[in-house]
Design a protein that fits this description.
alpha+beta; D-amino Acid Aminotransferase, Chain A, domain 1; single chain; disordered C terminus; 15 helices; Tubulin tyrosine ligase like 11; 2 domains; 19 strands; five-stranded mixed beta sheet; eight-stranded antiparallel beta sheet
Length: 599
């Protein structure tokens, strides 16, 4: 494990009574109850990156922006969409008789390749077991991957989601390339079951007799991604374009996940109550097609951080052996994550990273590792003082080039160190992607009308209040129709077999209802413009309502005797009623461009 290399302080053999700066959970946010500091898991992340939930989130974005989200294979959710899967495949085969597809079935909660299999026809699914007890996603199989040494491979990239609000994303500049162990052939009925040919999962291929452990990062069945890029570059491939496409894929995927993550977040850490802040390292599994287009395979909430592998010394006797490839990539990811999350450095805007020493025993700052429960450790992180650092500006497409920290070598010990491996991609490129964040704004409306803090479901009263406050009902859309819409959509979403403890309308159901309302109001526009128009309209109405409430509240306060007449800090505050007025004016300006489309 990486954490075996971290210097552990022995001062707390029985645990700490005081809160820690960083809690490092093994599985999820709920591994332990914590009320302060920072935790390396977001609430809801494990649920959001499951095969079905991820597919739904990406599909919503595909409905809005089909061209922007074409990096995810065509998917169907089983068992609920099995009839649709059969019908669509039949229709596509009839329209193109030359189309010879293959499909890959992935259990919803599967990991490490467990339960994955390939099929050539939808009828083969019925032979594979009971889908009711184990839901799955079936995807169109990518038949033409990029090959290296005639082998199929995928890419594991490490992504740090540093913050949800504001959204902040970092990508590691190097990753792992994991190879199949049999030469690739396009799927046929004869080779469908050859997992070492078609599935790149390390946990599967390590059992192949052809698996090659190597001390070099450039050879073997697991290599660094940078070694693959170097090899492609020697062939004349535009590496900057490859990196640009990968960065775009990562940002767009997290944009798709963010709305519901915010719902989970407000449920577990309600606004105004004490609680930790969160960050998380995610593992993105990406496949490069033959034309170098990156395709998202899946996202892992708990990517392995092991830096060794098991070697069989004799039958049944295994030993952990260091893996130089894993160590080179993963140690840098953990080290720089701790640098970025250092709570003391957050107070210094220009200083992103604390001092790191060249001694291998001091690759990490001083950390106390405190066991709390199985699979969980607490990191008590003590930062070291350091000189301010600034990061060199980069272009989106610059790819695998490394940043250089600008230090005076005579003052900083970091001058001779490798540059940080984590590259900020958001908000750095926010201007290029902010237009995609429509569902996030819909989620903000959903959260506003939840009513009870900590809940994740919207009741019928909350939905009616949303419609009424946003002035969405009229003679053609009565409140009775609103109730019917709520009941129909909520019932459909609650019947898909998902395990929910609460009753009411989930975020996905609210988004569907919102899309229906948008289509009713702006019939002549593309869906994303319909949704944007309705969002602007709702935000304008709510800003107006907030202003009225604040004016009324201010009037009441003015009639009361002043309790505080002196401000010792000398702050000069603008009148409070100006703020909502400015918000309303901004919303009105947004809305002006769409007035011709309103009913």
């Amino acid at each position: 494990s990486i954490f075996s290399d971290i210097p552990v302080e022995k001062g707390c053999p029985f645990g700490r009574r005081l809160p820690c700066d960083i809690y490092w959970h093994g599985v999820s946010f709920h591994d332990n109850e914590i009320f302060s500091g920072q935790v390396n898991k977001f609430p809801g992340m494990t649920e959001m990156v499951r095969k079905i939930t991820l597919s739904r989130a990406v599909r919503t974005m595909q409905d809005l922006f089909p061209e922007e989200y074409n990096f995810y294979p065509r998917s169907w959710i089983l068992p609920e969409e099995f009839p649709l899967f059969v019908a669509e495949v039949r229709m596509m085969k009839e329209s193109d008789p030359a189309w010879k597809p293959a499909f890959i079935v992935k259990p919803d909660g599967g990991c490490q390749g467990d339960g994955i299999y390939l099929i050539k026809d939808p009828s083969d699914i019925r032979l594979a077991g009971n889908l009711q007890s184990r839901p799955a996603v079936v995807q169109e199989y990518i038949c033409k991957p990029l090959l290296i040494d005639k082998l199929k491979f995928d890419i594991r990239l490490y992504v740090l989601l540093k913050s949800l609000e504001p959204l902040e994303i970092y990508i590691a500049k190097d990753g792992l390339s994991r190879f199949c162990t049999e030469p690739y052939q396009e799927p046929t009925l004869k080779n469908l079951h050859q997992v070492f040919m078609h599935l790149t999962n390390y946990s599967l291929n390590i059992h192949s007799g052809n698996f090659i452990h190597s001390d070099s990062v450039n050879t073997g069945s697991k290599r660094t991604f940078s070694s693959i890029l170097y090899r492609l570059s020697s062939r004349g491939v535009d590496i900057k374009k490859v990196w640009s496409d990968i960065i775009s894929l990562v940002i767009k995927t997290i944009v798709a996940l963010t709305p519901e993550l915010k719902v989970y977040y407000q449920s577990d850490i309600p606004t105004g109550k004490p609680g930790p802040t969160c960050f998380q390292i995610l593992g993105f599994d990406i496949l490069l097609m033959k034309n170098l287009k990156p395709m998202l395979l899946e996202v892992n909430a708990n990517p392995s951080m092991r830096i060794e592998h098991e070697q069989e010394l004799s039958p049944g006797v295994f030993e952990n052996v260091p893996s130089p490839v894993d160590e080179e990539v993963k140690v840098a990811v953990i080290r720089d994550t701790l640098r970025l999350m250092d709570p003391y450095k957050k107070k210094k805007k220009d200083n992103l990273f604390p001092d790191i020493y060249m001694d291998s025993k001091q690759r990490f700052p001083s950390i106390s590792v405190i066991p709390l429960s199985p699979g969980t450790i607490t990191l008590y992180y003590r930062s070291q003082p350091s000189e301010p650092a600034s990061e060199k500006k980069e272009q989106l497409s610059e790819g695998g080039s490394t940043d250089k920290l600008e230090h005076d070598s005579s003052k900083s010990p970091e001058a001779s160190l490798p540059s940080p491996c984590l590259k900020q991609v958001f908000p750095k490129y926010a201007k290029q992607f902010n237009y995609l964040r429509l569902v996030e704004r819909v989620a903000a409306l959903f959260i506003r009308f939840l009513g009870v803090k900590g809940t994740m479901r919207l009741g019928p009263t909350g939905f009616r209040t949303f419609v009424r406050n946003c002035k969405l009902s009229n003679s053609n859309f009565s409140m009775a129709t609103v109730d019917i819409l709520y009941i129909d959509i909520t019932r459909r979403w609650n019947s898909v077999g998902m395990d929910h403890k609460e009753s009411g309308m989930c975020l996905q159901a609210f988004v569907e209802a919102f899309f229906c309302l948008a289509q009713k109001r702006c019939k002549s526009l593309p869906l994303h413009e319909q949704v944007a128009t309705l969002i602007d309209f709702c935000e304008y109405q709510l800003a107006t309502l907030d202003e009225k409430r604040l004016v009324c509240s201010r009037g009441i306060m003015e009639r009361r005797p002043a309790l505080i007449t002196y401000q010792p800090d000398g702050l000069h505050l603008a009148p409070a009623h100006h703020a909502p007025l400015l918000n309303r004016m901004a919303a009105a300006n947004k809305l002006a461009g769409y007035r011709s489309h309103r009913l």
